[in-house]
Amino acid sequence: MKKHNFYAGPSILSEYTIKNTAAAVENFANTGLSLLEISHRSKEFIAVNDEAQELIKELLDIPSGYEVLFLGGGASLQFCMAPFNFLNKKASYLDTGVWASKAIKEAKFFGEVDVVASSKNKNYTYIPKDYTISAGSEYFHITTNNTIYGTELHEDPNVSIPLISDMSSDIFSRPVDVSKYELIYAGAQKNLAPAGVTLAIIRTDALGKVERPIPTMLNYQTHIDSKSMFNTPPVVAIYAALQTLKWYKEQGGIKALQKKNEVKAAILYDEIDRNKLFVGTAVPEDRSLMNVCFVLKEEYKELEADFANFAAAKGMVGIKGHRSVGGFRASLYNALPKSSVEALVETMKEFEQQH
Ligand SMILES: *Cc1c(COP(=O)(O)O)cnc(C)c1O
Q1: Into how many domains does the chain fold?
Q2: pLDDT tens-place string over residues 205-255
Q3: Residue 52 shares a structural domain with residue 193
Q4: Ligand 1 atom closest to Cα of 75?
Q5: Most buried among 35, 80, 164, 303, by the most CB within 10 A?
Q6: Are residues 79 and 184 in the same domain?
Q7: How far is the CA of 98 from the centre of ligand 1 (A)?
Q8: Is the beta carbon of 74 within 6 A of some atom in ligand 1?
């Protein structure tokens, strides 16, 4: 049976990515060696690394003065690395979920953190809009897509200080005005590659301004100077990332992907709003195009396990909500075809008819 992969991360990758990566595991760039056993310093792999970084610049329309890096440690290490490199005295953070809270916790090791607003009191079902950035803040940290709650900032905020953003789960899903950011970071395992590599996009002139010494591996400058080859990079994940990026270009680029994402999300949200059994959990204006969260209405709550089983029998994989939220979550990343969304909607309709 065809499986429809709605996992939140690691998550679906394009067939193009998987086929080409599998082929390179057998024979990488006609070297007669497997991608699993080549040197990261080989000229063939350096070409992969360079091409991937260049394609990211092209696809996201990154202005000059920025560097693209491939780092280790996941988005979680960026929660600490970002303030290590950018927070001198004070920074502002927006608390929109568990990931944002983890970023806040790490920043407090390095200076004063002003949490300008939080939606925690409503279990992060919306994105706060009324806040003021306090005087003296050096950057404003946001989480553009809140993977667990299905909320998303659909536009880059307008503030008078540089932005830093965790874009782990919506990078490459919409155009971004990179010039507003001094740092964008994203774990690759949602919209780019298998787990193991983390993308960082950095405005280089924003570096070197903190007074504290920074350990070598945690200093962005180290990785800029070595073109992300200071230590052994995750070769397979970077190769797969390049395939995904090529596929994105072939799909027509980020604007074209955004249009497809809007169509896919609308199909599912329309069904959630129409179906008598289900209700969406995020406020409509902040609904994420990447992670669609919904629950059974109060009066149908006892059907939760039944629906989970029913959907599994129809080939739906990974629609269980995050353990802190419950219910269901369908992740509609770039690589998920519209036909999978339609299959989920069909499943929800059939289940409704039985009750
Ligand atoms: C998945 C996710 C993370 C965690 O990423 P790791 O690479 O596992 O550290 C952080 N932030 C957001 C928004 C995420 O979706």
Answers
A1: 2
A2: 999 999 999 999 999 999 999 999 999 999 999 999 999 999 999 999 999
A3: yes
A4: 9
A5: 164
A6: yes
A7: 10
A8: yes
Q: Which of 166, 247, 260, 264 is flagged as catalytic?
A: 166
**CATH number of the domain that residue 296 is part of:** 3.90.1150.10
CA 189 to ligand 1: nearest atom: 7
> Is there a single domain that holds both residue 49 and residue 129?
yes
Residue 153's closest CA among 134, 121, 131, 136?
131
Distance 141 CA to ligand 1 centre (A): 15
Does the pLDDT at position 299 exceed 90? Answer: yes
Distance of CA 282 to CAs 150, 203, 233, 236, 315, Å?
6, 33, 37, 36, 26
Please indicate whether residue 209 is annotated as part of the active site: no
- The pLDDT of residue 323 is above 90: no
Mean pLDDT to the nearest integer, 306-333: 96
Same domain for 218 and 271, yes or no, is no
Whether 129 and 160 map to the same domain: the answer is yes
Element of type H or E holding 25: helix 15-26
Q: Is the CB of 243 under 6 A from ligand 1?
A: no
Residue 156 Cβ inside 6 Å of ligand 1? The answer reads no
User: 218 with 277, same domain?
Assistant: no
DSSP string, 42-106: SHHHHHHHHHHHHHHHHHTTPPTTEEEEEESSHHHHHHHHHHHHH-SSEEEEEE-SHHHHHHHHH
Q: Cβ(168) to ligand 1 under 6 A? A: yes
Q: Check if 314 is active-site.
A: no
Q: Is 247 a residue of the active site?
A: no
Residue 10: cis peptide before it, omega within 30 degrees of 0: yes
Provide the percentage of residues in the chain whose pLDDT is more than 70.
Answer: 100
| CATH code of 61's domain | 3.40.640.10
Q: 197, 219, 250 — which closes off a domain? A: 250
The pLDDT of residue 256: 98
Active-site choice (95, 156, 170, 190): 190
Residue numbers of the domain that contains 301: 4-11+253-354
Last residue of a domain, which of 250, 278, 313?
Answer: 250
Confidence band, pLDDT 50/70/90 cuts, at residue 264: very high
